[in-house]
Amino acid sequence: MSAAPASGLKPPAKESVATGSGGAVSSVNVYATRAGIEVLRHGGNAVDAAVATAAALGVVEPYSAGIGGGGYFTYYHARTGKISTIDGRETAPARMKPDSFTDPSTGKPIPFPEAVNSGLSVGVPGTPATWRKALHDWGTMSPAKALRPATRLAQHGFVVNDEFRAQTALNEKRFRNISSTAKLFLPNGELPVVGSRFRNPDLARTYRQLAREGMNALYRGEIGRDVVRAVQHPPVTPGSDAKIRPGLMTAGDLAKYTTLRQQPTHTTYRGLDVYSMAPSSSGGTTVGEALNILENFHLSAADKVQALHHYLEAGRIAFADRNRWVGDPAFSDVPTEQLLAKKFAKDRACLISPTTTLTSPVAPADPRRPGDGCAQGTGTKERYEGPSTTHLVTSDRWGNVVSYTLTIEQTGGSAITVPGRGFLLNNELTDFDFTPLSEDVPGPNLPGPGKRPRSSMSPTIVLQDGRPLLALGSPGGATIITTVLQTLVNRVDLGMTLPEAVAAPRISQRNRADTDAEPAFLQSPERTALERLGQHFVEAPKAFTPSPEIGAAAALEFLADGRTQAVAEPKRRGGGSAMVVHPNG
Ligand code: GLU
To answer: Which parts of the sequence are annotated with region: Disordered (predicted)?
Structure first.
């Protein structure tokens, strides 16, 4: 991180744990959490508050989320006791083909950074449609009202903190290549100064237009025209020699975009009901399969080493199956139910030994043919996905709960800001596999027209006896899955409180030889004990923080005494913000 000259202003104070009643919000940013709480105080419900929080994150976390991206929304409706989801994933344009990420001049996949920094990687945004759908189906407020706190925030600005500066610094080089992005995020050609006020009047205007005209201003109107122009003709800075490929998106692609109302994934874990996101996200099936595997073992704090060993091995196996089977179910037959079958998990659990470690890549098994679970073979390698994205949770005084993860994929997305509009476009289409899994198996996640790239987002809600107990999720690419899984194991099996479960050092195994680990874990006695069993750890890659981190969770617990506990990260990403409407109430 570059030395940060400081100016005088300070961001509002924040807490990582808040307990009380009347509704709760947790997110990675204090301004965003406050926007959600403001809406709850004005009589809004959890859905209104989730949209308000997300719109505010589009202002203060513009490199992770915003109307140029997509996400997945999970909702517990107190009156019916039902869990529903909205799949607001970005889709590929109609002109996208399985080999669209192949360079015709070389016949090889386009180098990954070139794909990221391009119009080609921009998927049709799903976030505005998600907000519209959620408010229409379950909210009480108009989009205009739900967007109000965020619009004010964009207009008046927020105080730049170390995190925002560091995330800008990480992107500085590529931001300079796009004139609209440099103009907005590198004011006067420099990194934003810590303690200064960062304003985004273009975004305030865009939010006002969406409030006036509805989300169709983006899907069928002026904002959409600007999006398409930016994708097809990325505004490369004059004099820059960066090679920025144009994209394939048209106005027709925007007009055709729809969110999907899908059944959530469901599994049980030690008597709890765990709901999450179905494909096109791999979150629900992979967290669910790993939990089902773990249910075959007794895990407890009394033997933390064995508990962590089993957690790592379950992750290894579940990722092997994820990579082989999960993609957009509209394009291939994704065995969602079979991946979540207890019988399949029991077969897979027989691979795990308490005294040795599996060799990755572990081969996938076919969930449609249970009984093959112990077969060993060759697996496929999982590509690294960096940390980005953002997660929020909300609840209200009526007992409704939202768990919502949204993203523009890489921190800083495609680096293309829509000129005059104040928001970045995603690079979500780089979540597709660029090449077939093997010569015989094309795999479920190759690009295709109108297709949704496989995600790892896992907005999760856990019920106990039919009532909410936990809501949680995290950013972090494929490590989202392990962060949600580890937090659940910490809370349910290892006897930690939710704040302890979130704060605990993270390790992430995704069917690779090495397990990514946070520094605090690398210094722990468990590390040595697990290495004796054959586990191998490496420090998690550094992203934009001085210290390597895995994920940045936001969570809620509904306590036995009727109060709600909102939990944010105490340290990761500079610390999150948890608030309740009536503290201690
Ligand atoms: N594109 C990722 C996904 O959908 C999220 C981005 C990230 O968290 O790195 O899983």
So the answer is: 1-22, 360-390, 435-459
Residue 533 CA, ligand 1 centroid: distance in Å: 31
Chain segment 190-205, per-residue pLDDT in tens: 999 999 999 999 999 9
**In the annotation, is 389 catalytic?**
yes
pLDDT in tens, 367-417: 998 776 565 555 655 555 556 789 999 999 999 999 999 999 999 999 999
From the list 257, 280, 235, the residue with the least C-alpha distance to 123 is 257
Question: Which of 71-85, 287-301, 365-379, 391-405 shows the lowest per-residue confidence on average (mean pLDDT)?
Answer: 365-379
Q: How far apart are CA 329 and CA 87, in angstroms?
A: 12
User: Does the pTM exceed 0.90?
Assistant: yes
Q: What is the mean pLDDT of residues 111-126?
A: 96
CA-wise closest residue to 90 among 455, 388, 400, 510: 455
State the amino acid at position 363 in one-letter form: A
Provide the terminal-to-terminal Cα distance of the chain, rounded to the nearest Å: 41
* Element holding 136 (H helix, E strand): helix 127-138
Helix then strand count (H, E) for the chain reads 20, 20
For 418, left (φ over 0), alpha (ψ -120 to 50), or beta?
beta
Distance of CA 185 from the midpoint of ligand 1 (Å): 22
Dist. CA 354 → ligand 1 center (Å):
32
Structure tokens at 115: 């794909």
Q: Considering only CA atoms, which residue is closest to atom 1 of ligand 1?
A: 409
pLDDT tens digits, 138-169: 999 999 999 999 999 999 999 999 999 999 99
CA–centroid distance, 86 to ligand 1, in Å, is 17
Pocket test for ligand 1, best of 431, 432, 452, 508 (most atoms within 8 A of CB): 431
Q: Which of 354, 238, 316 shows the shortest CA–CA distance to 511?
A: 316
Tokens for 447, please give them.
């690009």
Contact present, 283 and 480 (Cβ < 8 Å)? yes
Residues with CB under 6 A from ligand 1: 385-389, 407, 409, 428, 431, 455-457, 475-477, 480
Pocket test for ligand 1, best of 385, 429, 481 (most atoms within 8 A of CB): 385
Half-sphere exposure of 279 (CA within 13 A, CB side): 25
Residue to probe by mutation, ligand 1, list 409, 508, 573, most atoms within 8 Å of CB: 409
Tokens, residue 276: 């999450």
